[in-house]
Design goal:
With 902 residues, this protein is mainly beta. It contains ten helices and 69 strands. The protein folds into five domains: 166 residues, no CATH class; 115 residues, no CATH class; 111 residues, no CATH class; 115 residues, no CATH class; 155 residues, no CATH class.
């Protein structure tokens, strides 16, 4: 199991132990005052230069209290745990770094249970050192908790004598150990594909269990591997539990049906939930894994069915045709685990005066969208489907433009990519050119689509892409079809098309009255009522109903080429946009609580989410802008965003109110800069009364208002970040400024420009720069293509911010095809023999024994070194961690002692 995103971000910010010296508007004296009082706010953490260490930290044992939580029979607590040899605890995740077991003086073993302060659980620890103006360094112990964190959270500080409690369970409790083995049974330090114990077994896997009690865990492996999970009782070596992962699906045929073979899984299972009861001894959980070297594709059984026999042809090495049922060897493919891709060519043939065309296909039980093309068309039509496993299947078709029933053939090509499993054609059909049927091509944005048989009197049959509904003479054309609109989608559209996609009718646009192919229905107590598309709505049962018409039946019967009609039920995802308002000039109890409008700069721009907006389909995550508005007078500091409710009219349009959205607990709904919400699920459901439709923007708008707090700290200095782009236009180089941002820092602050980030081991332009290029700029335009940093002209940072030295310029040059420069470079391991300058950007990553930690630290090195001044991400590393923690409900707390700077 992979580390959660928030924990990964935490390591990105804290994992390397690299110094990050930075300053923001709050004075260090205020930080000191808050620390003295026993708490520190998020704004305080931005107040002074500081250094963070996590994995490289050694936390002195004096900050921990080792406690036995069970009692002896006489009721006395166990107080004799043997801890004298423990001088420190390694920074990072406590569960992985504290002693798993301890003995007491009676030689009774104790098992680590949990860490906490008071009733609050503790998970990670590290050190924070703050450099003060007088040259001293203040060192603290920070830790993370499971408390929910908001932008107003005050973080507790351990006072002298307070400790983190490490609980150990006394007596008859048992440990659960985890290990990897390769295919030969050798214990390995890494799992499949280099995965760590945390990734496979989970970061919160159980390590101990009370006698007679139970435990459970989820085990996950990557694609392309198979594994056996075994739970063994340590005392006798007996297996208590065994399961298989990564086993491939296998099929067999019975006449014209292809079904899962006996013993075959119904899916390629990559996860397993283990649950064991009545534990009486220590257990060892073992994952023995093996990489799969090759995979197979098999359409040979389908070639033998009546749906393909003498209808489907394959091609030999000389491109000669043969029926697939005659040459089953040409219906199979073997491809390597290195390529994860292959291609297969086959054709629809003309035989016995019938021309056959593929109109349905299933692979591993999942429907694959099939392209269709008119026999006289010169087009190549392509459709792509991604299976639930991630395998991508693209099918294209062309016609030889021959004559139906004599010389017409269609040639198909199947291209498969990203495939890590065996594939079997489990169903499919080639239809003759005289056949009359509807093919359900696209079913987008709808749920529970169904079709009713026998003139609307039969049972409801589920529809899916590729479903075939035969149209014979009589009244079957009027059999009703129904579906529900899926959450996050607009009003659905109904269209009928020819095989090549040429539109016959959509909604009421092209054919009406007696020429209409579709009748829109609303269900009543006695039957159905026909309505226009404009008045069509869901019936009382939540379904949208429609049916075919006699005009559709006449069209299909008019000619063989018109016998197959494609039906599409498609709803577009709702587009969302985010609008920011300044909250200027507000008062409370007669006291001004926000700046005047004329004094506010650097307000975030309206976010439209690109051409299709933020939506539930392909742009689900809305990142709240990291850009902070600034009060030029310095009287107020931006604190957070609050969500405003909306008033809507009957047509859905509306406007924001002045009322703040409140949650069930009575607290306002707020967002910190850099937080996010999803266009589907709970987060968008929570703001339904805050959305209104804007016709001009063609979006549903969510309004966020800035909340300010009075500045009480010393005067700050504004600094400017400018973004420039340079590209070729008509052979000439064009350079222009597309974005400027103003921010506030303390005099003398050090700023490092946020230029790069790491992703999948590659150095890329930072997320902030990518946002600016993608449209978050004054021009409102996206700058497509690949851009690189102009190192010669770009300001890497400012060592000492003053009123005369306060501008960061970032120049981005478009990479032309002949330009070999790329912003993505491979990660170079750190040479431990060479010291690094922590104030300079670096391409290095630190090596660790865990694959997950290695990846995280590779990013943490760059995140820390490039802690930035571009506005979106100007922050010390710990501030970045808190932003990550806030998203996941993880608190950050500090504890400390003073030491003199060396």
């Amino acid at each position: 199991m992979a580390l959660s995103l928030a924990i990964l971000m935490l390591f990105l910010a804290l994992g390397s132990g690299t110094a990050v010296w930075a300053a923001e508007a709050t004075g260090s004296s205020t930080l000191e005052q808050h620390l003295e009082k026993g708490y520190v706010t998020q704004q305080d953490l931005r107040s002074a230069p500081h250094n963070v260490e996590t994995e490289d930290a050694a936390i002195p044992a004096k900050y921990f209290e080792f406690v036995c939580v069970n009692h002896h029979a006489d009721g006395s607590a166990c107080t004799d745990l043997q801890t004298a040899s423990i001088s420190s605890i390694k920074g990072g995740k406590l569960r992985n770094n504290v002693p798993l077991t301890l003995k007491n003086n009676s030689d009774v073993r104790h098992t680590f249970s949990r860490a906490h302060i008071g009733n609050t659980a503790v998970y990670f620890v590290g050190t924070l050192t703050i450099l003060e103006d007088d040259g001293t360094e203040q060192e603290y112990i920070y830790y993370t908790t499971d408390k929910n964190v908001t932008n107003k959270t005050a973080y507790a500080v351990l006072k002298n004598g307070d400790k983190i409690t490490l609980e150990y369970t006394h007596g008859k409790d048992h440990t659960v150990e985890y290990q990897f083995k390769d295919s030969d049974g050798n214990v390995t330090s890494e799992g499949p594909d280099g995965w760590s114990l945390d990734q496979v077994f989970g970061a919160d896997r159980p390590l101990e269990v009370a006698d007679g009690h139970s435990y459970s865990d989820t085990v996950t492996i990557p694609r392309g591997y198979k594994a056996t999970v075994t739970v063994t009782k340590k005392s006798d070596g007996k297996d208590r539990y065994t399961s298989k992962l990564g086993e491939m699906m296998s099929y067999q045929r019975n006449k014209n049906s292809i079904f899962l073979a006996k013993g075959s899984p119904d899916t390629t299972k990559l996860s397993d939930f283990i649950s064991l009861d009545n534990i009486t001894g220590d257990d060892v959980v073992t994952l023995q894994y093996e990489k799969i070297d090759q995979f197979t594709f098999d359409a040979s059984e389908w070639a033998q069915t009546v749906y393909a026999n003498t209808r489907m042809v394959v091609y030999d090495d000389n491109n000669k045709e043969a029926f697939g049922n005659i040459r089953p060897d040409l219906c199979r493919k073997t491809f390597s685990a290195q390529d994860h891709s292959f291609s297969w060519d086959f054709g629809g043939w003309t035989a016995h005066q019938v021309t056959w065309e593929l109109d349905q296909l299933q692979i591993n039980g999942e429907p694959v969208t099939v392209p269709m093309v008119d026999v006289k068309s010169d087009k190549t039509v392509t459709e792509t489907t991604t299976l639930s496993t991630g395998t991508k299947i693209t099918i294209s078709v062309t016609s030889n433009r021959g004559d139906n029933g004599s010389s017409a053939t269609r040639r198909y090509r199947m291209d498969v990519e990203n495939c890590y499993e065996n594939l079997t054609v489990s169903a499919g059909n080639l239809v003759g050119h005289y056949h009359k049927e509807l093919v359900f091509k696209h079913l987008n944005g709808v749920s529970d689509p169904e079709y009713q048989t026998r003139d609307g009197q039969g049972s409801w049959i589920a529809l899916k892409p590729g479903s075939l509904v035969e149209r014979v003479s009589g009244g079957s054309y009027s059999d009703p079809i129904r579906f529900k609109k899926a959450d996050g989608y607009q009003m659905p559209h109904i269209s009928y098309t020819k095989k090549d996609g040429t539109k016959l009718q959509e909604d009421d646009d092209l054919k009406t009255g007696e020429d209409a192919f579709v009748q829109y229905l609303i269900k009543t107590e006695t039957g159905f009522k026909g309505v226009s598309y404009e008045n069509w709505q869901a019936s009382s049962d939540g379904y949208y109903y429609f049916c075919g018409t006699e005009a559709l039946q006449k069209y299909m019967n008019a000619a063989p080429a018109q016998g197959v009609v494609l039906v599409n039920i498609q709803a577009s995802p709702i587009k969302y946009g985010i609008n920011y308002v300044s909250g200027a000039g507000r008062t409370q109890d007669g006291v001004q609580i926000s700046p005047n409008l004329t004094d506010i700069e650097d307000m975030p721009a309206y976010q439209n989410g690109g051409e299709n907006g933020y939506n539930c389909e392909n742009h689900q995550k809305v990142l709240i802008s990291n850009q902070q508005p600034v009060d030029k007078t310095g009287s107020f500091i931006f604190d957070h965003w609050e969500v405003l409710t909306a008033e809507t009219r009957d047509d859905g349009t509306g406007y924001p109110t002045e009322t703040v959205k409140t949650l069930a607990d009575g607290n306002p709904l707020t967002y910190a800069e850099g937080e996010s919400l999803q266009c589907s699920g709970a987060s968008i459901a929570a703001v339904q009364d805050c959305l209104y439709y804007d016709r001009d923007k063609d979006r549903k708008i969510l309004t966020l208002r800035a909340v300010w707090k009075k500045r009480e700290e010393r005067d700050a200095i504004p600094y400017m970040v400018n973004f420039y782009v340079s590209y070729k236009e008509n052979g000439e180089t064009v350079t222009k400024k597309i974005k400027s941002r103003t921010h506030m820092v303390n005099p003398g602050a050090k700023i490092v420009a946020d230029l790069y980030q790491y992703e999948d081991g590659k150095k890329q332009l930072s997320a902030n720069i990518q946002n600016v290029l993608s449209g978050d700029n004054e021009t409102g335009s996206a700058y497509d293509g690949e851009y690189r940093i102009d190192d010669e002209n770009t300001t890497k940072g400012i060592d000492n911010v003053t009123v005369d030295n306060n501008t960061v310029n970032i120049y981005l040059v478009k990479v032309e095809k002949e330009d070999p420069s790329k912003p993505s470079d491979p990660v170079t391991p750190i040479d431990p023999s060479k010291p690094t300058d922590p104030s300079q950007p670096t391409d290095s990553s630190q090596q660790t024994t865990s694959a997950a930690t290695s990846s995280a630290q590779s990013s943490s090195q760059q995140t820390a070194d490039d802690a930035a001044a571009t506005g979106d991400n100007f922050a010390p590393a710990l501030w970045i961690a808190i932003a990550a923690a806030a998203l996941a409900g993880i608190g950050v707390v500090l504890a400390g002692s003073r030491r003199k700077k060396q």
